[in-house]
Amino acid sequence: MNLLQLINIEVVFEQNTNNETVVFADFNLEIKKGQFISLVGSNGSGKTTLLNLIAGNIIPTKGSVVFAQRDITGLKEHQHSHFMGRVFQDPALGTSPSMTILENLALAEAKGHSFGLQRGINKKRLDYYKTRLEQLQLGLENKLQVQVGSLSSGQRQALALLICTLTPIKLLILDEHTAALDPKTSETIMELTDKIIKKQGVTALMVTHNLRYALEYGDRLLMLDKGKTVIDANNAEKDKLRVQDLVQMFSEFMEERPAISNLKVIHLAT
Ligand SMILES: Nc1ncnc2c1ncn2[C@@H]1O[C@H](COP(=O)(O)OP(=O)(O)O)[C@@H](O)[C@H]1O
Ligand SMILES: [Mg+2]
Q1: pLDDT of 197-239, one tens digit each?
Q2: CB-CB contact of 206 with 38 (8 Å)
Q3: What is the pLDDT of residues 129-172, one digit of tens each?
Q4: Which of 21, 52, 224 to mutate to test the pocket of ligand 1 (most atoms within 8 A of CB)?
Q5: What is the mean pLDDT of the chain?
Q6: Is residue 130 one of the residues assigned to a domain?
Q7: Which of 129, 202, 219, 262 has its Cα between 20 and 30 A from that of 252?
Q8: Which ligand is nearest to the CA of 23?
Q9: Of ligand 1's atoms, which has the minimum distance to the CA of residue 50?
């Protein structure tokens, strides 16, 4: 069953000006419930725009976004937070630095309404938060009263992941969420991400520049180039791809070409 459908999407920035940029002309994508997709593509290929479209940060100039059989095109960004969560590249974006871990979690559960804090946190919630924090295996369960701003980038990103998935969401959006971390921390957060996705069975869409992660994690791989899908590989096909193959394709797409339509589109997944 499809969780998400992008139908005949067109995105044009600064339409009818000298700076007009057509990012997507007639873009279509279907994401099945439970899929974990890694999305790669060179800079400017449209990855972030795609995530923004899905998350409601931008509205397409044409086409529709259908989520769980419901047309959500034009729905406000904050209305999306009830069924999707997003972790950004910058660890500072997913949490509030001046609040404690406990306050951040309580606020996340109330989806940004401050009544979550005013009501107070009973023992049951506290135990629940501790259990969830324990699963991160970073010792954060002992730091409930610590201000989030004093945590390391990796700890903050782990917390951002937890915050996103604290309430039952249907789609987890990961926007290069390990790119700002050192290699070892990046590895830890990636493994943690995979664990959370599997445990919760949440559908996930992960943009990454790390080609190894793109191949190692998830069960479908997409490559975008100039607003078009140039690779759509299912799990079995992804298993046969190597980092070297992807690097090769990147370098081919980087070369100047008269028109993208001349490219052989590798459409593997069905
Ligand atoms: N708000 C915007 N206004 C104008 N152009 C934009 C805007 N956002 C993105 N673009 C352009 O759209 C194209 C795709 O950008 P983006 O989705 O950020 O690519 P990626 O994330 O793959 O690097 C780029 O050419 C970029 O300059
Ligand atoms: Mg981007």
Answers
A1: 999 999 999 999 999 999 999 999 999 999 999 999 999 999 9
A2: yes
A3: 999 999 998 999 999 999 999 999 999 999 999 999 998 899 99
A4: 21
A5: 90
A6: no
A7: 219
A8: 1
A9: 17
DSSP 8-state secondary structure symbol assigned to residue 38: E
C-alpha–C-alpha distance, residues 46 and 60, integer Å: 13
Domain that holds residue 215: 2-97+154-267
Residue position matching structure tokens 């095109």: 73
> How many residues belong to the chain?
270
Number of domains within the chain: 1
What distance in angstroms lies between residue 223's CA and the mean position of ligand 2's atoms? 13
Q: Is residue 122 a part of any domain in this protein?
A: no
Residue minimizing CA distance to atom 16 of ligand 1: 46
Burial of 268 (0-12, 13-18, 19+ CB in 10 A): middle
**Ligand 1 contact, 46 CB (< 6 A):** yes
Q: Is residue 85 part of a domain?
A: yes
Contacts of 70 (CB under 8 A, 6+ apart): none
